[in-house]
TrEMBL record:
The keyword Isomerase applies. Its EC number is 5.1.3.15. Pfam families: Aldose_epim. GO terms for biological process: carbohydrate metabolic process. One of its GO terms (molecular function) is glucose-6-phosphate 1-epimerase activity. Substrate binds at R66, Q84, R89. It is an enzyme of class 5 (isomerase). This is glucose-6-phosphate 1-epimerase. The lineage of its organism: Eukaryota, Viridiplantae, Streptophyta, Embryophyta, Tracheophyta. It catalyses: alpha-D-glucose 6-phosphate = beta-D-glucose 6-phosphate. The active site is at H167, E271. It comes from Musa troglodytarum. One of its GO terms (cellular component) is cytoplasm.
């Protein structure tokens, strides 16, 4: 409720899995499971849920939770011997009790720092040492901020390369009522056509069928306009040049056991990512990837919010 003190609480979630609940003074909140470092909830100060989590999500490790913000690392989409989206979302993270100083921009006072480091077993599937620090924070006005800092700690002098995505599932009123601004005229790789490269049309993206596109060299800001809810999600990203847009639509929805047949109507994934150009770190080097999400009122008809202004503002 508004007026409460900001709080960070470690408690038990679904199936007794540990989760951290962040609450700010205005009443906004977020939840992140230690399993997967997985954000599963982001609510407004009126307690409205902004992220989509499937009603059929199974909170049973090592299967990743279907929805929220899965972390895709050290790879996005399949090749080699790793799972399609890597293993970070399938592992148990810890609370980082001694994080290195965070950049001065951490204006938020309501945050939790998590850390993931490889176990001996992990070396068998990905033979590298790393420290992956994730800060989940509630910013002023209820924004949700995720900052990933990945450091190569290989003692053998070896560099490593990875691809990455915040695989964010947004809760929407009706996929056919949605527009996405900020990706028009960009090149993309179409996962539904063997990753062939195309150029997007010249105006806002709307949805009439399944989509699975990796947009390349995208702007810092992307807007998702939900007419029915009179709300616009604004993604701001840094260190993440690409953006994936995915909706499984009806056929693929039916084929996913942890996804309701009709749930595709009420979600859209727009994923800040680094895919086209893998990131390479030498030992001692650190990469930072930051995502900031906000939900702003947008009564389009009154012209109160012009997405172009949001994107350029
Ligand atoms: O982000 C789009 C995508 O790569 C799709 O191709 C689809 O596979 C989706 O991710 C879900 O993947 P997951 O491994 O979470 O079932």
């Amino acid at each position: 409720m508004a007026g409460e003190k900001p709080s960070v609480e470690l408690c038990k979630g679904v199936n007794g899995l540990d989760k951290v609940v962040l609450r700010d003074a205005r009443g906004s909140s977020a939840e992140v499971y230690l399993f997967g470092g997985h954000v599963t909830s982001w609510r407004t100060d009126h307690r409205e849920e902004l992220l989509f989590v499937s009603n059929k999500a199974i909170f049973k490790p090592p299967k990743a939770i279907r929805g929220g913000i899965p972390i895709c690392f050290p790879q996005f989409s399949s090749h080699g011997n790793l799972e399609q989206h890597g293993f970070a979302r399938n592992k148990f993270w810890s609370i980082d009790t001694d994080p290195p100083p965070f950049p001065s921009d951490s204006s938020s006072k309501t945050f939790v720092d998590l850390i993931l480091k490889p176990t001996d077993d992990d070396f068998k599937i990905w033979p590298h040492s790393y420290e992956f620090r994730l800060r989940v924070a509630l910013g002023l006005g209820g924004d949700l901020m995720l900052t990933s800092r990945i450091r190569n700690t290989n003692a053998d002098g070896k560099p490593f390369s990875f691809t990455f995505a915040y695989h964010t599932y947004f809760s929407v009123s009706d996929i056919s009522e949605l527009r996405v601004e900020g990706l028009e005229t960009l090149d993309y790789l179409d996962n539904l056509k063997e990753r062939e490269r195309f150029t997007e049309q010249g105006d806002a993206i709307t949805f009439e069928s399944g989509v699975d596109k990796i947009y390349l060299s995208t702007p810092t800001k992307i807007a998702i306009i939900d007419h029915e809810k009179k709300r616009t999600f604004v993604l701001r990203k840094d260190g993440l040049p690409d953006a994936v847009v995915w909706n499984p639509w009806d056929r693929k929805a039916k084929a996913m056991p942890d996804f309701g047949d009709d749930e595709y109507k009420h979600m859209l994934c727009v994923e800040a990512a680094a895919i086209e150009k893998p990131i390479t770190l030498k030992p001692g080097e650190e990469w930072k990837g930051r995502l900031e999400l906000s939900a702003v009122p947008s009564s389009y008809c009154s012209g109160q919010l012009d997405p172009q202004k949001v994107l350029q503002g």
